[in-house]
Amino acid sequence: MSGLFEPTLYMIKGMAILDSDGNRMLTKYYDPTIFPTVKEEKKFEKQLFNRANAEITMINRLTCVYRSNVDLYFYVIGSSQENELILQSVLNCLYESVSTILRKNVEKRTLLDNLDIIMLAFDEICDGGIPLETDPQVVAQRVALRVEESPFNDQTVTQLKHKIGATTGAVLQSAREQLKWSLLK
Fold first, then answer.
1. Mind listing the pLDDT tens digit for each residue in 85-99?
2. pTM attached to this predicted model
3. How crowded is residue 20: how many other Cβ atoms within 10 Å of its Cβ?
4. How many CB atoms lie within 10 A of CB 7?
5. Residue 124 in contact with residue 143, Cβ under 8 Å?
6. DSSP code of 1?
7. What is the biggest distance separating any 2 CA atoms in the chain, rounded to whole angstroms?
8. Phi/psi at 9 (nearest 5 deg)?
9. What does the pLDDT look like over 130-161, one tens digit per residue?
10. CA geometry: angle at 71 spanning 76 and 21, to 5°?
11. Rounded distance, CA 176 to CA 134, Å?
12. Nearest to 123 by CA among 102, 153, 93
């Protein structure tokens, strides 16, 4: 029985979103023993991108599943013994969550504009390598709630900008008036 592996909840070794050139857009690795440095992570990502011709592939004794759309490639990475169906369900949740969050406009520019929200989705789907949620609607709802709870949103930033602009304008006007009166004396 020594050939069997001990069951574990830590199924996911990493999740990644790469662009059409194989550059990292967003990645999260959960097992520091596999890739101890960023250099090794990027080397693996290049291998991953170059071998993305099948939905399921084996690279460096890791099982990788992927899905692509327009100019983005979504990956979920697990150990060589991991069940591909579990990895695929996490990948589907990741892709569909991102699609819902970005309102079906899954492309590089939109992802960059909403990177903070996508990072929250990563955390809602998987925590420390343990899959937490595989329902993309639930993930999208949780992320939306967390964004609403944020003390800063577009509206508060715009209001703050107007207040600062008005205050700065008033200070500059006052300084101009004082300078004008001091020169006229």
1. 999 999 999 999 999
2. 0.74
3. 13
4. 7
5. yes
6. -
7. 99
8. -85, -20
9. 888 889 999 888 888 766 655 555 555 566 56
10. 80
11. 61
12. 93
